[in-house]
Amino acid sequence: MRIKISKATVQGEFVREIETISGESLLACNQCGKCSAGCPLAFCMDLLPNQVIRLAQLGIEDVLDSQTIWTCAACLTCVSRCPKGIDLPRVMEAMRLVSMARRGNQIEAAQIPGEMISEVPQLALIGGFRKYSS
Amino acid sequence: MGIAYFPGCTLSTKATGYDRSGRAVAAALGIEMNELEEWQCCGATFPLATDNAMALVAPTRILAQSQRSGGHVTTLCSICFHVLRRTQYFLDQKPEFLERINWFTEEPYDGNSRVSHFLEVLRDDITWQGLAEKIVHPLHNLKVAPYYGCLLLRPQSEIGLDDPDAPVILHDCLDALGCQVISFPYQSECCGSYLAVSKPDLPHKLAGEILSSARRNGAEAIITACPLCHFNLDYYQRPSQSVSPSETIPVLYFTQLMAVALGLPDDQWGIENHYVDPLPLFRQVVPMQSYQTD
Predict the structure, then answer these.
(1) pTM of the predicted structure, to 2 decimals
(2) What is the average pLDDT score of chain A?
(3) What domain count does chain B have?
């Protein structure tokens, strides 16, 4: 895939939007990779957490196509390890919100199997709908 | 000693055993837990977007209600604790949000409250020594692995309960009960949380790793303070998964072990509705009463 990076993308609306919603400074990240090394869900991510933040720094909106933003469970392991004090789950949340504002919800109640609804605890349903619908 | 108690959605429905054992244990230790008169779900997630004040209305309303009972509210659920504690911290740091949120909370929250997890009440108010002195059946033969999960500990700057990488609070509690406490490398790894709803195969994989690590390290039971961790770990071992009986491991709340060790009647242990039955394990360590005919 060919990616074009320019001043326009790096200083563009997308970077500003993510930084405003998350309250985090994307350029604070120096790509040390500790977030990806410690992430318990990195094994199944199409982009590693540090790669997500790298694409966001460069203003590449294709990052919203990544399943990683829907796989992050906000366990905050990366937050406790980031040497630059970046709250990456806040960046992930900002991307989820931008994605849902553009493309709609990621989860619909009707799609969840009945067996699952009767088994899972209430807080999983509430948490899931808070994260994957708006 | 009286404290306002916020049970939360899951302890009132799926995790009633945690609620019952927690209330019984508190009563046995002389803690008067006064359930908030009228409460609703805390939202189950702390909002991570800077402008999401709406999601803070529910937890703020709970903090406002706790003011009626002296301003100290405690929870058993790790996630409720996480949400309430971070909400309190956020409003403390950003008082400009408080006025906006108070438009929606019926009674205004004055910004002063203490949010604690029940483990914290045990550590700071009862003390481990005080707990140890009340033990009737020390659980000397039980090898247990404390499992902290995520939200009880992180982010440390806001939660401040314990060291996020080397926590001891559950260890100390189980130690006071006389258990043989086993540390294992996955003690604060994520169980997959609410991905149970959207991508259930992921919590399934994570739970498998956590459980097998605990077993490899010699644990006979895993002890948690979170009803979602409990679900993800226990559900992985449900009968339809055909996990061999020799490979299953009971998942218990710390309050259930406390109820046993404090010599409370077994109808207060709250150990029904487990996928992996903990009774065979308990039969090895303490005398049984009402469960004997099972």
Answers:
(1) 0.96
(2) 95
(3) 2
Q: Could you tell me the residue range of the domain that residue B23 belongs to?
A: 2-119
Verify whether the Cβ–Cβ distance A75 to B48 is below 8 Å. Answer: no
pLDDT above 60 (res A81)? yes
In the predicted structure, residue B201 carries a pLDDT above the cut 90 = yes
- Using alpha carbons, select from B230, B217, B218 the residue that is nearest to residue B278: B230
Domains detected in chain A: 7-103 (1.10.1060.10), 107-134 (no CATH)
Do residues B53 and B180 share a domain? no
Give A89→chain B minimum CA distance, Å. Answer: 7
B33 contacts B74 by C-beta, under 8 angstroms: yes
Q: Which of residues 197-226 of B touch A (CB under 8 A)?
A: 197-200, 202, 205-206
Cβ distance of A127 and B164 shorter than 8 Å? no
Together in a domain, B153 and B271 = yes
> Looking at the structure, do residues B78 and B137 belong to the same domain, yes or no?
no
Q: B142-168, pLDDT tens digit by residue?
A: 999 999 999 999 999 999 999 999 999
Cross-strand partners of B252: B223
Per-residue model confidence as pLDDT tens digits over A97-129: 999 999 999 999 888 888 888 999 999 999 999
Is the per-residue pLDDT at B290 higher than 80? no
Phi, psi (deg, nearest 5) at residue B227:
-70, -20
Residues B181 and B110 in one domain: no
DSSP for A31-53, written as a single string: ---HHHHH-TTGGG-SS-HHHHH
